[in-house]
Amino acid sequence: MKIAPFETEHFFARYEFSTPYQLCNSDCETITIDELLSLADVSLEQLGEQRLSYTETQGNPELRQAIADMYSNVSADDIVVLGTPVEGIYLAARALLDPGDEVIVLSPAYDALTTLFEHAAGPAAVKRWSFRPGEDSWYLDLNELQALLSPSTRLLVVNFPHNPTGFLPSPEFQQALFRLAEQHGLQIFSDEMYFGLVQPSTAPVPSAADLSANTVTLCGLSKTYGLPGLRSGWLVIRDKDLLERFMNWKFYTSICPPGPVEFLSIAALKARDTLRARNIARIASNLQLADAFFKRWPQAFKWRKPGAGSTALVGWNVPSVEAVSHELARSEGILVQSAQMLGGDDRHMRMGFGRDAFPEALSRFEDWLRRNSVSG
Ligand SMILES: Cc1ncc(COP(=O)(O)O)c(C=O)c1O
């Protein structure tokens, strides 16, 4: 079977460990195992005592309880702990669709949120609900969603806070979206990998898992909590039959979560408020620098400041961001990513604000812009 290349991951596999100045990461600054254990008041000896046996397939009950405690209407029995966060998207594409079903996805989007559904349902069955450029921010139009519906539409795939635009629906928009889904019998797959990463000026919204029992929700520790190397993720599935269907698919992929990851995830959830607050503050400070940068380059870029998440989708007045990005990576060690890889166009780039090294990377990028006398 021929499948679409996972462009973002190919791009990062090529450059992530060879370019020192990165401007397009979606994760947040990470910490060491020592720092994590100390924040959670857990000793290294306790980690060392963990046995490397198989683990409970649905996930360690203590971890599932700690996860359920983050929601209002969710119990430990509704949680499925995954082998990796991205596995949750694969399982959703496999377990939520029957032959002939149609799916609506956001565009642009993290590649897997489009391509894995195309692999499962066929490209023609996947319709794109596109972000529109407003003057100050990206937005979605519910009328456009309505126009994409057909009698075969079964599933709506969303991701809020959104990678790459940083869009978070208002509470009213979220309510209207769920009403529309209910009226049309649509199931929602809600990717909430950036849940809680919300700037103080933006109104937060509840998790889809708390709003409706007819959703499957993905979350994990890679982004909001800055622990991408832990590979820790989970699904919330409140429908028992559906949960069993997911488990059957999971037996073919990871079977059970890695024990050391579960141990460290319990520690991370103890420290979750601190980890999240640090990342929100780091993003806010990097966004301030970005604001000032884009004021200096009004002709070169179109800046729409994100209200949530760790990324932004930025217009850049060059013929091909992709062509420039390879040149910049090779000659300057600066990494920018074309939005084309995410289903957007090649005159936009994704920027990421979660890393400590962002200020230096931005300053190197600005030096390069000046040297190449790009017009401001
Ligand atoms: C929206 C979204 N979902 C899922 C993932 C996958 O997370 P992980 O790489 O930790 O498996 C990512 C990673 O970039 C993402 O941006």
Explain this structure to me?
With 376 residues, the protein is of the alpha/beta class. It has 2 domains: 7-32 and 273-370, Aspartate Aminotransferase, domain 1 (Alpha-Beta Complex); 43-272, Aspartate Aminotransferase, domain 2 (3-Layer(aba) Sandwich), CATH 3.40.640. The protein is 40% helix and 16% strand. The protein has 14 helices and 15 strands. It has helices at residues 7-15, 33-40, 44-48, 61-68, 85-95, 112-121, 142-148, 171-183, 208-211, 240-251, 259-270, 272-296, 321-332, 358-371; strands at 21-22, 79-81, 102-107, 126-130, 132-133, 138-139, 153-159, 187-191, 215-220, 233-237, 301-302, 311-316, 334-335, 337-338, 348-352. The strands form 4 sheets. A 7-stranded mixed sheet has the order 2-10-9-8-7-3-4, with helices on both faces. Strands 11-12-15-14 form a 4-stranded antiparallel sheet. The protein is globular and about 60 Å long. The model has no long low-confidence stretch (mean pLDDT 97). Pyridoxal-5'-phosphate binds at residues 26, 84-86, 110, 159, 163, 191, 193, 220, 222, 228.
